[in-house]
Amino acid sequence: MKILVLEPPAVSKYGNQRIYGGNGGNKSDFRKAPLDMMWMSGFLRGHGFDNVFHDANNARETLTDVGHLLKRERPDILFMSTSTCTIYQDMEVARLAKTIDPSCLTVAAGTHIMALADETLTESPGLDVAIYSNEWEQVALNVARAKGDLGGAHGIVFRGAGGELTRTPAQALLGHFDDLGFPAHDKLDQSMYRDPTMKRFPKTMVQASRACIARCNFCCQPAFFGSVMKRSVPHVIEELKWFKQHGCRVL
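RESULT FIELD:
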């Protein structure tokens, strides 16, 4: 099975931040690694589903470039990130994938999808599966394992053969953050990530906890990501050692 994990092209001049909900378009050339999809890619690989990871957003690629990628890779499953600010172009990626290969299973994740899974599927005939449940990494693994019978994959809304939408039970919350393994740092071109305020490159990120201690009513975090979950210190240190081997310095 060939799997492509994709951060779609930007709709703004300096890129878009889709990570865990997104905050619109960047106002300067700020290139932040798509950590949420890196976790998904790494988790899939750790469970026997190696994959191609591609960041078209920070590479400043276009839909045409993504079309070339899809023709070259011919994935059986396309996992892609979305956000409210980019949803219409993101769905063009799904449409393009189905145009190139109708058998490709197109799967979208993101907080926009979590809130409006049924609506997005209804408006986007190129999209097959919406990950509505928390724990995107585990849900992606469910989809990979159950590609021929999506009714057994928890955490999704999917389109049936007749066009009907089916919502499966939610994915159980992750018991231990360490169980996710490591994000796929090694699958990225580290040279493209940078911040206008930084002098040292390359740049990457390490996530030691998920969710937030605050309960701000204007933020998607408490609504979608629940209570704070922390990784163990030894596990974080092992990740620091690992990506240091890929050219990043630990500051």
